[in-house]
Amino acid sequence: MPKVANEVYITDPNQREGWDFEVVQRRFPMPEEFGGGPSPMFGNYRSDTGQFLGGVSEQYGLVQNSTLLDRAEEAFAKRNMIPSDRQICISEGGKRMKAVYDFKNEVIQLPTVGEELGFRLMVTNSFDRSLRVSFALGFLRLVCTNGMQTLEKELDMLKKHSKSLDIDSLLTDSALDKAMARFTDAGAVYGNLAKLGITQDQGVYALQNQANTGLISEKVREGMNSVWNNPREDGADGSVGDGRNLYQL
């Protein structure tokens, strides 16, 4: 995850300080000019520092960071899955939390392009309504450590903060098993794509066709086209050998 000024990163797997803080809700008062009394809006505050994190409605369901991450790590432990890396990002003093678990021992070989795909799980939460509660499966390209998230929407386990949100029903044993199965299936798909050779011009045409049909914007096409026309010599963009293929595209 790229670092910016207002973000704190915790990489020690045993450290809870910095991300495991309690957030409490307090009801806002209604201004006297509007009748006074209790408001239908609440404020989310850190109990350790008193910092205001965001205003929410009474329908908002508060979810603690520890509830999400402890649930994820319990699910890993059941399968004897040990993360090779864990990075937790806390931004804006605690308003948002993003965690990334990498499992470099859970890999899929792509011999056609000389790469490996590792398993990655991403977890998000927020107290200012900027992020939903989510567990998402991703792929880690071990050749360059750039995250490559799968396009299958059903692998994103994402919910709004609501009073009825049940975390145990969000990241279930069956959901994680399904994610691992999809991980294996997607590796086979990418392997097959790597076997389908295309020319440089066919790649340019394919990108233009996606822009013409509205799948991507023209600005995005221009950026992708620039990368496609200037493959990296170190192969970190999937460009291996003299030929080009659909996996690279």
Can you tell me about this structure?
The protein is α+β, with helices and mostly antiparallel strands and 249 residues long. Helix content is 26%, strand content 32%. Strands 1, 5, 6, 7, 8, 9 and 10 form a 7-stranded antiparallel β-sheet that branches. A hairpin with a 6-residue loop joins strand 7 and strand 8 (133-141). Helix 4 runs antiparallel to helix 5 (218-228). The chain is globular, with a radius of gyration of 22 Å. The protein starts with 6 loop residues before the first strand and ends with a strand.
Strand and helix map with partners:
Blueprint: E1 7-10, E2 23-29, E3 38-46, E4 52-57, H1 65-78, E5 85-91, E6 96-110, E7 115-126, E8 133-141, E9 146-148, E10 156-159, H2 167-170, H3 173-194, E11 197-198, H4 200-212, H5 218-228, E12 244-245
Antiparallel strand pairs: 1-5, 2-3, 3-4, 5-6, 6-7, 7-8, 8-9, 8-10, 11-12
Helix pairs in contact: 4-5
Core attributes:
249 residues; alpha+beta; seven-stranded antiparallel β-sheet; three-stranded antiparallel β-sheet; 5 helices; 12 strands; 32% strand; globular
Task: Give the gist of this structure.
With 249 residues, this protein is α+β, with helices and mostly antiparallel strands. Helices cover 26% and strands 32% of the residues.
Beta content comes to: 25-35%
Could you list the spans in which at least 5 consecutive residues all have pLDDT below 50?
none
Tell me the series of helices and strands, N- to C-terminal.
EEEEHEEEEEEHHEHHE
Compute the average pLDDT.
84
Label the structural class: alpha+beta
Shape: globular
**For the report, how would you describe the main beta sheet?**
7 strands, antiparallel
Query: What distance separates the N and C termini?
Result: 23 Å
Q: Give the beta-strand count.
A: 12
Radius of gyration: 22 Å
Number of helices: 5
| Helix percentage range | 25-40%
